[in-house]
Write a structure and sequence with these properties.
Blueprint: H1 3-27, H2 36-50, H3 56-81, H4 85-107, H5 123-128, H6 139-174, H7 176-179, H8 223-228
């Protein structure tokens, strides 16, 4: 495999492993994802700032929405605009772990045990309280549903990131020659019913020779041809004769 192929494989491997690691923290260890937990917090607070001045329900909901929508938007950008499966898969898994973080926040609404930045009102305690949807008794089921959506997004992200590797492995089993070609490059198969190599050199004499054109002796001579056969002035003899 050439360097370009190895570079693509390294990107897929890094994205798949990274997506699996952050998903492991969130959905297996049930622990905040290092570094990304702080990024999610910053995006969460940015959502509140953007929604400042809006209705209170939207203001309290904006933080949780943006912290999931931001990595999900990056996944769409990488997948749709850049055609980059590795970036799309990793960001999709990131959106899943961010949704898990939101589910923890939702589940904490009845007891409000989580420390809040700068104090203030608990977002989901307000949203599920009597001022909002008055559904505090459903906090656990809502948190479980958000957690399920996050886990689904994480699994989908890992699958998207490693799909090129799976496809390449399947090609390698079927045809070792085809596996040497990067999996993004389509393999051009020969046309059915033909065995000829399109790059083969055609030997001389493979095509019938064209008949030699013989000038018509009875036709009037071409004046330009006759003039071209006359001697130039400097080639004439001193007495003016050729």
């Amino acid at each position: 495999m050439d360097s370009t192929h190895w570079h693509a494989w390294g990107r897929y491997l890094a994205a798949g492993v990274g997506a699996a690691v952050i998903s492991l923290f969130a959905f297996v260890l049930r622990s905040p994802v290092p570094i990304f937990d702080w990024v999610d917090l910053g995006v969460h607070e940015l959502g509140h700032m953007i929604a400042m001045g809006s209705p209170r329900m939207l203001h309290f909901l904006a933080g949780s929405l943006l912290q999931v929508a931001f990595p999900a938007g990056l996944a769409i950008y990488f997948g749709w605009r850049q055609k980059d499966r590795s970036g799309a898969g990793f960001c999709m898994a990131w959106a899943g772990t961010s949704a898990w973080d939101v589910s923890v926040y939702v589940a904490d609404a009845p007891i409000q045990a989580l420390p809040l930045i700068g104090g203030g009102t608990h977002d989901w305690a307000y949203l599920l309280g009597p001022q909002g949807w008055n559904a505090m008794d459903r906090a656990g089921s809502i948190a479980g549903f958000v957690d399920f959506l996050g886990m689904t997004a994480a699994v989908a992200g890992i699958s998207v990131a490693v799909w090129p590797a799976i496809r390449h492995a399947a090609q390698r089993v079927r045809s070792p020659e085809a596996a040497a070609i990067p999996c993004e490059v389509p393999i051009r198969e020969p046309r059915a019913g033909t065995d000829a190599d399109p790059l083969a050199v055609v030997p001389a004499g493979a095509f019938p020779s064209q008949p030699e054109l013989v000038p018509d002796q009875d036709a009037d001579p071409d004046p330009w041809l006759v003039a071209s056969q006359l001697p130039f002035f400097h080639e004439r003899s001193p007495n003016g004769s050729p």
